[in-house]
Amino acid sequence: MATRDLHMEEDEILFKPIESSGKNFYLTASILGVLVILGVIAYIYQYRNGLAVTGLSRQVFWGVYITNFVFFIGISHAGTLISAILRIVKAEWRLPVTRAAELITVLVLLFGVGSIIIDLGRPDRMFNLVRHAQFGSPLLWDVTSVAIYFTASSFFLYIALIPDIALLRDRGNSPKWLYQILSAGFTGTAKQLRVLDILILIMAIAVIPIAVSVHTVVSFVFAMTIQPMWHSAIFGPYFVVGAIFSGVAALIIAMYLIRKFYNLGDYLKHKQFNNLGLLLLVMACFWFYFTLAEYLTTFYGNEPAQMTVFWSKFTGEFAPLFWAMFIFCFVIPFPILAINRTRTILGTTIASISVVIGMWLERYVIVVPTLTAQRLASDLPTYMPTWVEWSILAGSAAFFCLLYVLFSKFFPIIAIWEIREDREKKREEIIEYVRERLPEKGEELEEVLPE
Q: Which spans in 264-386 are helix H?
């Protein structure tokens, strides 16, 4: 019985971020809040003075904001897609990871959509996409797919959260009224758990094609034009691979921070980081392959407009960013992840940070060079982001982190009910195994094993 109590006490650490707030929480929230305010001030300044305060122009009409859009939408694949696949294959090591992953999807989608709104000089005109819908436009496909993905991902996150909300309700945590409403009358009966498992499985299966379609459609916004180095059939799978690549990296970083600041080393162990590190290694190889295929076919075709953009990346104005992208996305993470000795928790996190930086640079290198290489322009346009764009980027990233921290203040960041359910399942399997082979030891083992 003492061992059972010990395991229940271990789970108490998962409630600690909700039930107590230390100095670190308020310090982190304050720093993030200051950055958010800076971003809001920058946007108000842009709204009042127009897009002239940015580095954008008639020729270079997409810049940091659209880079952010593609980047944030890509990171969203970390959550629902990875969680859904791991749930379907019933990977046991996923249990401490799934909620952190699913939360990334829901929150980061908001900032992907927000980047589009920020990019509009007249935000009210976003409603024109609905009022004057043209289904032949990839932009409308984009709006539709992202809306469906956000709805499905939010529902997926919520239904897996219900049992833990019920735990908070039964413990009497505040705000009681919120947990009472969100728990939806859940009491943990066998029938309710069976229905919940079915719903989670259905959503896990449904969300995979939705997630793949989202970033494919994002790539169509570029590929359906005839702009040099955008009009490419490879963009669909290339964007999906890049999205999973950056998404896994973002998830690993989030896991490291959760593990460190909430002292959850007993739940987020080397196994989780090692397995996701191996997945990141595989995605790095896929990314290298697709990048090589994209630039090799462009070089071999030798079409003048394409080659102008090509050489601007390899040896011209954007060469420092292009080669930095390659170093961050492949040169740094590949050896770290490929060697067992360096694929530690810290090593995997360092590789992930490198990948996130590199993938943002990749989105920038896709978006901007093509627009600065106009086919008919006598004077080639230039683009340099201003303090407004950088401030809004910093504010957006900080706001995402702040919402993530606030979520962990109201809900468990690790699915407690799934951890307990898996523990009970393993307990029953061990007891059954011993009973079959040592019947006389079955009852004794049942008393010893923790629930």
A: 270-301, 304-314, 319-326, 333-338, 345-372
The DSSP result for 388-418, as a single string, is HHHHHHHHHHHHHHHHHHHHHHHS-SS-HHH
The H or E element that residue 16 is part of is helix 16-19
- Side-chain-side CA neighbours of residue 405 (13 Å): 20
CB 26 within 8 Å of CB 348: no
What count of other Cβ atoms lies within 10 Å of the Cβ of residue 247? Answer: 31
Instruction: Compute the distance between CA of residue 175 and CA of residue 166 in angstroms, rounded to an integer.
Output: 12
Under CATH, domain 25-373+382-414 is a member of which superfamily? Formate dehydrogenase/DMSO reductase domain (1.20.1630.10)
Q: Kindly list the domain boundaries of the chain, sorted by start residue.
A: 25-373+382-414, 415-451
Q: Could you write out the three-class secondary structure of 190-240?
A: HHHHHHHHHHHHHHHHHHHHHHHHHHHHHHHHHHCCCCCCCCCCCHHHHHH
Q: How far is CA 202 from the centre of its chain?
A: 21
For the chain, first and last CA: distance in Å?
9
Residue type, 189: T
Question: How far, rounded to the nearest angstrom, does the alpha carbon of residue 4 sit from its chain's CA centroid?
Answer: 36
CA–CA distance, 291 with 363 (Å, rounded to integer): 12
pTM above 0.85, yes or no: yes
Alpha-carbon distance 397 to 67, whole Å?
13
Residue 440: band (very low, low, confident or very high) from pLDDT cuts 50, 70, 90: low
State pLDDT tens for residues 12-27: 888 888 888 778 888 9
- With tokens 């100095």, the residue in question is 23
